[in-house]
Design goal:
eight-stranded mixed β-sheet, single chain, alpha/beta, 12 helices
């Protein structure tokens, strides 16, 4: 009888939360109230916290969903969605609220969503720029000052850049996200924008070391990024058609390399990839930046399947732990696939965990601990996204290394050095002057 009563209570909570979320724009007070109601109705499935405050003091709310919402669990990858970093680009803000509603009401009702939440820790930030959203008094399809934060800064030009020095002053919203990325083991992410209809992927900036002479800035994981972008576009109602928003601009398969579209300095997706060990793409979801509220339901329907299928990709590739012979985790070990070097090497977290997103195929995985011989392992990776678990392989070092903390990767234009190296075969005046400057610094 108690079990039956509990089921009734659960169903009532499920209905009451769902009934309260309409297809309308939720300003700061309503958004916060909704997130708190969801957490109150599903306390064991969700965790609500603020990662910081905006310039005007508004909370930057994040709702975490999963079987273990309050903390990271070994083997369970971390995923995030971030919306509304441009305050006047509003569709993402609202469809993330409906994604939350769909996830919590489908848990233990839908077997796919249940397995997804049991094997993934999902972080959802509906708005990174609440001040900009509140400042947008008159909705506009093209441009308003609400794009920027209260200090007039574009948050998607505000992150450290791997190709050129970004002189913009780091904003409170940006710093909060940087701290958040540092404190979690994010594996996959997407940030939601408006003003176009396309999935854009790393790199947004570049130089000759990443192929920009051909009009494309290629990362070492370009094949994975193309797959991620296509996963979203082909599960979207129309993005895959590639027609864009007018005849002047088309995107084959509904995707684009960020640099090929337009060069961008200080972007969030490049920062995630270089310094956060997190693959992030940018999703442009609406031709109109701030469309009428009566169109929101259609936007949710158009994006629903794509949002879910994209989260599943966090289970691509391989994962595991690096430990010593006694089973003690080794943090800061470098674990990478041969032929895919990252300018900031991907390292294990405090639990000795690594996660590498890789497409199906044969790879040699290299685990390195300073002072010890590297361990190489050839692995055959299959598509395990449907099983909600990447291939698992642990590396065990026979000797016990002395625990040491690795120096953090500097927030400097790291690809400049690679550019000089790639130009060494065919010297240019720029490269020669750069090399001379370096030699003067060394020998002065």
């Amino acid at each position: 009888m108690r079990a039956a009563a509990g089921d009734v209570v659960g169903i009532l909570c499920l209905v009451s939360v769902a009934a309260e979320l309409d297809f309308e724009y939720h300003h700061a007070g309503k958004l916060e109230a909704y997130l708190k109601r969801v957490h109150a109705a599903y306390p064991s499935l969700t965790y609500l916290h603020s990662i910081g405050r905006s310039v005007e003091g508004r909370d930057l709310w994040v709702l975490v969903l999963g079987r273990f919402p309050t903390q990271h669990k070994i083997g369970i990858p971390e995923f995030k969605y971030v919306a509304n970093m441009h305050g006047d680009e509003t569709v993402g803000r609202e469809i993330l609220l409906h994604l939350i509603d769909f996830l919590v009401t489908s848990y233990r009702q839908d077997p796919v969503i249940t397995r997804l939440l049991n094997n993934t820790r999902i972080h959802i930030m509906p708005t990174m720029n609440p001040d900009g959203f509140e400042a947008t008094k008159v909705p506009d399809c093209f441009y308003t000052q609400g794009r920027y934060n209260k200090n007039g800064e574009d948050l998607n030009r505000n992150f450290p850049d791997a190709f050129e020095r970004n002189n913009a002053s780091i904003q409170p919203e940006t710093q909060a996200v940087m701290n958040w990325i540092k404190n979690e083991t994010f594996v996959l992410s997407a940030n939601l924008h408006g003003g176009a209809l396309v999935a854009s992927y790393t790199f947004d900036n570049g130089n000759s070391a990443t192929g920009t002479l051909e009009g494309y800035s290629r990362s070492p994981d370009d094949d994975v990024f193309i797959h991620l972008a296509k996963t979203y576009s082909f599960n979207h109602a129309s993005m895959y058609k590639g027609t864009g928003c007018d005849s002047r601009q088309t995107f084959p398969d509904g995707i684009t390399n960020g640099y090929s579209w337009y060069q961008l300095e200080g972007g969030m997706q490049d920062y995630n990839y270089v310094w956060g060990q997190c693959f992030e793409i940018t999703l442009e979801l609406s031709c109109c930046k701030y469309p009428p509220a009566d169109q929101l339901e259609k936007f949710w329907r158009d994006n629903k399947a794509a949002l879910i299928e994209y989260i599943k990709q966090v289970h691509l590739g391989i994962k595991g732990q690096v430990t010593d012979k006694n089973g003690n985790p080794i943090p800061n070990a470098i674990v990478e696939a041969q032929g895919r070097p990252h300018v900031c090497p991907y390292r294990t977290n405090e639990q000795g965990e690594y996660f590498l997103l890789l497409l199906p195929g044969t790879y040699v995985i290299n685990a390195t601990v300073p002072g010890f011989k590297s361990i190489l392992k050839t692995v055959e990776i299959r598509d395990n996204t449907g099983n909600f678990s990447a291939l698992k392989h642990d590396f065990i070092f026979p000797e016990v290394p002395i625990r040491s903390s690795a120096a953090s990767c500097p927030k400097t234009p790291l690809y400049q050095e690679l550019q000089w190296a790639s130009a060494a075969v065919k010297p240019t005046l720029h490269a020669i002057l750069g090399l001379m400057a370096v030699l003067l610094l060394i020998f002065q």
